[in-house]
Task: structure prediction
Amino acid sequence: MKRLLIFALAFSPALLLGQKKDDIIAIQRDLANLEDKVTQLQQAQNDKLGSLQSMLQQAVDASARVAASLAAMQKEMESKLNDQQTKLVTPVATLGAKVDQMADDLRSVSVNVADLARKMDGINTKLDDISNAIRTIGAQPPVPAPTGGTAVAPGGTAPQTSPQVPAESAETMWTNAYRDYQMNNQDLAMQEFNNIVKTFPGTDTAANAQYYIGYMYYNAKQYDDAVKAFDVLLSFNENSKTQDALYYKAVSLQRAEHRTLAAAAYKEFLNKYPQSEHADQARKNLRALGINPPGSARRRE
Result:
């Protein structure tokens, strides 16, 4: 037993040394494998880094080419814009000068037109003054006979007196009055129409003048005065303005709130002139007053 123990003790260091040597060899082998793997990994990283550097360089080169292209395009655009600006500056400047010249010409024309208008106003004023002077001269009353008795011509015969002749014809007076009416010279036109009625009573010209007297009152919304003027015309013999005078008399009465008188005037108008151009409106106005027009019952039957 002791021998065996001695034998084990004698051989145990050698066994331990052999085991350690194997472990060291395994460790060295593992280290070598690890170094290979690290080397491979580093090589792979180096390859990837090279690829990235190559790609980055390619991107830098492409960016440089794009920048160069953009610079060339910008230069070309600037050159073309400068050329276009050079080509357009002169025509635009010429056009501006022409526009300024036209503006000056228009201002000159405007001044000339204004001067011409002032001259025309002066001429019209002078013509009106001359016309008024002529009318004043024509309207002067006849010189009265001497108060000491009637003069006797040689031979013992009293002189014959001729009837007074109007200074202007009815046509001339009507033309002047109607012109002033159209030019909205209402006061002057009213005076002239009244002069026509007084100077040429019983004529168609007087009837037309009397109608416009009433119509001017009607347009001025002086309805009571319009009714009076139309009544004067209706007192004349039947003429071309009788229908219109009766119709506008009825309208004037209605607008003056004389409803009963207006209804009576409308009825008279429709009874006398059922086919007049104002007949339909007269019927509508009569219905608005709450009264059936004459003949409406027969038409319904």
